[in-house]
Amino acid sequence: MNGIWLDFERPLIELEKKIEELQGLQGVEDEIERLKAQAEKLKKRIYSNLSRWQRVQLARHPRRPYSLDILPLITSNLIELHGDRRYGDDSAIVAGIAQFNESSVAIIAQQKGRDTKEKIKRNFGMPHPEGYRKALRMMKMAAKFDLPVISLVDTPGAYPGAGAEERGQSEAIAVNLFEASTLPVPIIVLILGEGGSGGALAIAVGDRILMCENAIYSVISPEGCASILWRNAAKNKEAAEALKLTAHDLAEFKIVDEIVPEPIGGAHMDYATTAKNITNVISKHLNHLLTLPKNKLIEERIRKFQNMGVYKN
Questions:
Q1: What does DSSP say about strands 258-260 and 208-212: parallel, antiparallel, or unpaired?
Q2: Minimal CA–CA distance to 256: which of 155, 153, 128?
Q3: Tens of pLDDT, residues 183-203
Q4: How far is CA 178 from CA 139, 160, 175, 297, 310, in A?
């Protein structure tokens, strides 16, 4: 019973408590097995019928794996690089070189924090302009040394503070969008947890957009949307339904290329299985992208994003 439980998970609590209480007692093995089977059925019923707001809660779960939890499980020998060579280093963005399936890749990832100290250090996963410029530096290095890029997205959005605006937040995001669209190497993007607005999109232009089963990806948070539409942030559940921000919604809209399955109950239940699933899906797409000529890679990437909207010349 350790850890944090969400409201819709409460029916599991009593079953888990009973199982824990019976553990170690003699002559109750059959009862334990019966309760475990009952709990498993209940889990499947709960997690196969989640609302969009419940997916939002899972995407924000305090124990959900962050980028620095997943990277050691899917890569090796990560060498992190710091700073944008203009202003400073932003810990909300992790960038570096690593080994993925014995090949060198460039890593760009957004990182939240677990405890108060780390949350402050990582700015709650909300990058400043220097973070996005560090990501751009990594992209250019990847192009120079012909390294595929793997980008992990997990942010509520870019930091909206006055200092960030003074240092060119919108310009930094816009430049990343432009440069990534024509980068001559494969780019695979994984929406790991939250994908919030331009703060996510700044490192999410790629050849393949993958999304974890319980992640979310949207132009605005449900609370922000509710505040604008209804002048009431408490209408977050209605906003989540309207935004259609889940992996299944975005796959249907052809924004996302493939959904990465999570263990029953969410990625926070089993980091190892989540990482294995991520590795398998990234490997499949990366192996294909590496066979494409660079000009075709860029053409298909641009066409992919052009097809996401409706516009007139």
A1: parallel
A2: 153
A3: 999 999 999 999 999 999 999
A4: 12, 21, 5, 15, 19
Instruction: Evaluate whether 237 touches 51 at the Cβ level (below 8 Å).
Output: yes
Instruction: Let me know: does 67 contact 154? Beta carbons within 8 Å.
Output: yes
Domain count, the chain: 2
- Structure tokens of 128? 């400043």
Provide the domain limits for residue 28: 7-49
> What are 68-104's pLDDT values in tens digits?
999 999 999 999 999 999 999 999 999 999 999 989 9
Q: Which of 199, 9, 1, 2 is nearest to 90 (CA)?
A: 199
Q: What three-state secondary structure class fits 75?
A: coil
Domain-embedded: residue 97: yes
Question: Taking the CB of residue 1, how many other CB atoms lie within 10 A of it?
Answer: 10
Q: Do 81 and 45 reside in the same domain of the chain?
A: no
